């Protein structure tokens, strides 16, 4: 069994030669920047709304560039399926987002009301996100591969007032559940083409009629801007609330962790349905006034190498699951592509194998820089910086302005609190729960309608991340594993509870337990253990029928790929399924020593 992270000594450190830097890194000497950095200073480097009237993410990302000498620069460059491109300059993006805000205002959609999207990576999605901020409304992106149930659940929990979607997605996933969503007043179809479906509106027509000069609404730093649903293990998805002030962290992390410089052509491969695709696929790069490349298609190895080469990508932010697919395809697929424009590559979302870091160096000509964060932190918290040597397998060091620590846990896995203060792990290379000192600008401000759940995330003066990690003697953090059972498959975070609940709706299923099992490409794949109703017999036909049932409801990204029938799901006395025990059995670990699971991590 291989541990999630290599120990610091196993892989040689990748040194950086300053002579090889094509541009001087924004973060020069780590310790010096850490000492001098303040969030107040970062805040002052942004514009704020004209006249000191407040702070709005869209103004910082778009309008201040549109009003200055970057107005004609490409802000967004979309790559269509045929490889053709379509761009919006900062000036055009300012007008289009003004129009979207004007549409919302005409419809009577106001401050704090929720605008959802269920849409592929098309210009309308990006215009909707930023236009929503301009109307002081709240944006909530949904991943377009979600099935009707996750869509319904999130629209309901978030009290979605507006949904921006396409005709096909509406017909398949929303029309059948529309009746159960009385708060959803307006569905705007991006591709209605003059013929909207019943009870929907034609977004293109509305935008064409709206004013491009709509004034931006005044928002304050603490006003809610984004709602990001993240999956929990023991209940319904949690809606993490983010505010306009988050843009200060997006700016600082874009500067230090992604090393954005004004002339960069930047590509983030994450879909805006996930927090990375919003914070770093839209906000951070636009705040820096760079050109953001958006691929409208899904991962395709040759296409990706072509994009890197032909679009002259300079900074690339991607994920281990994608890198693993490129690695598996073989280095020869990269041959013949001129990747010389590329100067910085970063990865997030799951542990990045040391092999992947080194593969980057060999195949892309650059090592991969891992960084760590989560939906709740709103932005990158721990990172490998361009100027800093890489220890392959490590997530890097805490961002300037971020106080990260490891909190000691008791035998039950609870944080140890003494006299109101969390007990910190001070010994190097010792496992603890990764914790952050609250107060950074992009910290989530709550879980929607779940105050108690939010409060439970903090203890002894720290925000507890739920992840286990080690820190070496030089302050590099090493991921150990998740403290709970959430499954990470191809970059998707999947709550077992959500999958189990769906399986149990199948008439033949009595009960289900769901875990993630190691997979060389996806990181983990979802595996279900199912107990059948009395009178039902296991068969291959039934197995496929149940998987098909789940796929239809949950979408292929969330439904189980593997399914075993069982007659003895392990449970606690109170009846809760012991997923960790299921996992121990699956991985052939001793059932008595479940703590080894945390050391083992999600890979073989
Ligand atoms: P999400 O909230 O969907 O962004 O998922 C956040 C979780 O993904 C974190 O709490 C970690 O468990 C995991 N994660 C993110 N980045 C990394 C990384 N660089 N290394 C290991 N795990 C990561």
Automatic annotation (TrEMBL):
Listed GO MF terms: acetate-CoA ligase activity
SUPFAM superfamilies listed in its UniProt record: Acetyl-CoA synthetase-like (SSF56801)
EC number, UniProt record: 6.2.1.1
Domain of life: Bacteria
Keyword Cytoplasm tagged: no
Domain AMP-dependent synthetase/ligase intervals: 65-448
Entry keyword set: Acetylation, ATP-binding, Ligase, Nucleotide-binding
Domain AMP-binding enzyme C-terminal positions: 498-576
Transmembrane segments: none
UniProt cross-references to Pfam families, sorted A to Z: AMP-binding, AMP-binding_C
Protein's UniProt name: acetate--CoA ligase
UniProt gene name: acsA
């Amino acid at each position: 069994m291989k541990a999630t992270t290599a120990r610091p000594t196993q892989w040689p450190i990748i040194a950086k030669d300053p002579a090889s830097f094509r541009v001087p890194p924004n973060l020069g000497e780590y310790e010096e920047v850490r000492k001098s950095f303040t969030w107040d200073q970062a805040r002052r480097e942004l514009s704020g709304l004209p006249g000191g009237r407040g702070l709005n993410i869209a103004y910082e990302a778009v309008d201040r560039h549109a009003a200055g000498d970057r107005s004609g620069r490409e802000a967004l460059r979309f790559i269509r399926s045929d490889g053709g491109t379509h761009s919006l300059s900062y000036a055009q993006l300012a007008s289009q987002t003004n129009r979207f805000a004007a549409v919302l205002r005409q419809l009577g959609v106001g401050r704090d009301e929720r605008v959802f999207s269920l849409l592929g990576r098309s210009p309308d999605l990006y215009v909707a996100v930023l236009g929503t901020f301009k109307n002081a409304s709240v944006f909530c992106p949904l991943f377009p591969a979600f099935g009707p149930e996750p869509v319904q659940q999130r629209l309901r929990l978030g009290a979605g007032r507006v949904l921006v979607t396409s005709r096909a997605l509406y017909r398949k996933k929303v029309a059948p559940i529309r009746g159960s969503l009385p708060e959803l007043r307006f569905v705007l179809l991006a591709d209605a083409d003059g013929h909207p479906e019943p009870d929907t509106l034609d977004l293109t027509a509305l935008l064409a009629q709206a004013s491009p000069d709509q004034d931006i609404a005044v928002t304050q730093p603490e006003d809610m801007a984004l709602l990001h649903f993240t999956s929990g293990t023991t209940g319904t998805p949690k809606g993490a609330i983010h505010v306009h002030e988050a843009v200060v962290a997006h700016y600082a992390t874009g500067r230090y962790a992604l090393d954005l410089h004004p002339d960069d052509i930047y590509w983030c491969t994450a879909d805006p349905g996930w927090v990375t695709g919003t914070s770093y696929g839209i906000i951070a790069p636009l705040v820096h006034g760079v050109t953001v490349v958006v691929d409208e298609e899904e991962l395709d190895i040759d296409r990706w190498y072509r994009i890197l080469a032909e679009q002259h990508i300079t900074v690339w932010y991607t994920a281990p699951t994608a890198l693993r697919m490129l690695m598996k395809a073989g280095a020869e697929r990269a041959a013949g592509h001129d990747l010389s424009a590329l100067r910085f590559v970063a990865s997030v979302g799951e542990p990045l194998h040391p092999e992947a870091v080194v593969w980057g160096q060999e195949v892309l000509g650059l090592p991969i820089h891992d960084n760590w964060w989560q939906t709740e932190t709103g932005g990158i918290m721990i990172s490998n910086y361009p100027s800093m040597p890489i220890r392959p397998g490590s997530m890097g060091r805490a961002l300037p302005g971020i106080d990260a620590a490891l909190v000691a846990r008791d035998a039950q896995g609870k944080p140890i609190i003494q006299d109101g203060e969390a007990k910190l792990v001070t010994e190097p290379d010792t496992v603890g729960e990764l914790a952050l000192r609250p107060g950074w600008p992009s910290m989530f401000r709550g879980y929607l309608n779940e105050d108690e759940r939010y409060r439970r995330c903090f203890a002894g003066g720290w925000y507890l991340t739920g992840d286990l990690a080690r820190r070496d003697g030089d302050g590099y953090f090493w991921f150990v594993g998740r403290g709970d059972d959430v499954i990470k498959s191809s970059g998707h975070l999947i709550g077992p509870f959500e999958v189990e609940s769906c399986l149990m709706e199948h008439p033949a299923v009595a009960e289900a337990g769901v875990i993630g099992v190691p997979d060389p490409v996806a990181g983990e794949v979802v595996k279900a253990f199912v107990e059948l109703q009395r009178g039902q017999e296991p068969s291959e036909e039934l197995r496929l029928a149940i998987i098909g049932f789940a796929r239809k409801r949950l979408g292929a990204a969330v439904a189980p790929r593997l399914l075993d029938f069982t007659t003895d799901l392990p449970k606690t006395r109170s009846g809760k399924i012991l997923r960790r025990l299921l996992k121990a059995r699956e991985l052939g670990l001793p059932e008595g020593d479940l703590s080894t699971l945390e050391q083992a991590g999600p890979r073989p």
